[in-house]
TrEMBL record:
Protein name, as recorded: HNH endonuclease
Organism, scientific name: Ilyomonas limi
Keywords on record: Endonuclease, Hydrolase, Nuclease
Gene3D superfamilies, per database record: 1.10.30.50
Domain of life according to the entry: Bacteria
An MF annotation (GO) of this entry: endonuclease activity
Amino acid sequence: MTKKERQAIFDKFGGHCAYCGCVLQKGWHADHVKPIRRKFKYDKSKQKLVHNGECRHPKRECADNYFPACASCNINKHSLSIEDFRKLVSGFITSLNRDSVQYRIARRYGLLQEIEKPVIFYFEQYKSEA
Ligand SMILES: [Zn+2]
């Protein structure tokens, strides 16, 4: 990817993460909106899976399929579709209540408030100034 292509991805949503809307910092990721699903093979010398340079959906390697994303959103989205990523984020309150003692205590002390609302990604409400 050239610097110009990467800049065009950065500019898609005014320098914000396409998903959470945070201002992108150095080290932001170019997310494949529709996942390309890289192929991996086991490397005996490294004792781990390594990317073999191929992917299951090579036609998705195009400018239209890239969104700018913060590292956190891109890592959590991983190879999920947009709708599966939305389901994942929607379930975070449930998993916090199940798995985090600190979260449950903070809720009991009224330090945080849960609200029911749909997960709407930044790109879905972004209005270009152009
Ligand atoms: Zn984000």
